[in-house]
């Protein structure tokens, strides 16, 4: 804060008077600076998409997508839920749950090879894998919450995503999107400058997907908490390094985190679509642990339903209501 010098006309004691006035003012008014500011609305990028039909995303198009790094290298992706919590896949922590200090989260970076001065890197305070996760390939409840060491600064490039509210239904063929810095083919890493990739993926009917991945003898691979999305013909899919990243669907003008990139047989193979952990299935668990998560996809309640308007009372002989 800059304090200007006292004009000579105010004489000695002016500084002390000013100081007491400032003290008084701070005691009498609520300290706005100390009150937690409302977080920005979830699922609303401030940047309108500029690339149509391409694979590169545009800068700040998906401001909740983060890189979960292990020993300083990209390991998995994740999604920002609040200024303190990131959600990702539990399998990203296989064998290293007891070493959260190996991990960090890079936010606001569009190109990993070129993260920019406005990206933020934050340490991981702790990891909560879902208690039902069994650490086996393709297991259910592949979801983990990551508590950040300190709150991130929201900006145009760092914003939270919404969780699907209870009324959201994602019917088959709904067009959703995935984003990530994973391999561009099996065994081919994303080349420098590692621009965040995006892909449109339609939701696949659960029964159809269940049949595709049927293990035989009553062995269901696709559980109630999984979603399938992508293309039965192959060619387009998530791949190694995309795990933990978001499956996002736009509902009622906000982007919702419908799923977390979890598994699939290979990448982009015919009849082997990507499998995602469903956030609708795990919403209650996420909300219990991560305070302040925002829901989306609910139409704003109409005024009419909130407060039924009464018909204007007619006064006999009075002027007709306008
Ligand atoms: C992986 O290993 C991985 N095709 C992620 C997604 C898919 C397969 C593998 C889906 O991280």
Q: Report mean pLDDT, rounded to a whole number.
A: 85
For the record, give the distance between the C-alpha atoms at the N and C termini, rounded to a whole number. 54 Å
Strand segment tally: 14
Order of helices and strands: HEEEEEEEEEHEEEEHEH
| Percentage of residues in strands | 25-35%
Question: Which class do the helix and strand fractions yield?
Answer: alpha+beta
CATH class bucket of one domain: Mainly Beta
In terms of per-residue confidence, which ranges show pLDDT below 50 for 5 or more consecutive residues? Answer: 1-32, 50-54, 317-322
CATH architecture of one domain: Beta Barrel
CATH fold call of one domain: Thrombin, subunit H
The H-level CATH homologous superfamily of one domain, spelled out, is: Trypsin-like serine proteases
- Gross morphology: globular
Rg over alpha carbons = 25 Å
Percent of residues in helical segments? 10-25%
Helix and strand arrangement:
Elements: H1 14-28, E1 65-70, E2 73-80, E3 85-88, E4 103-107, E5 120-129, E6 144-148, E7 163-164, E8 175-180, E9 197-204, H2 206-212, E10 226-229, E11 246-251, E12 254-263, E13 274-278, H3 279-289, E14 295-296, H4 303-306
The structure holds 4-(aminomethyl)benzoic acid.
4-(aminomethyl)benzoic acid is lined by residues 237-240, 242-243, 261, 263-264, 267, 274.
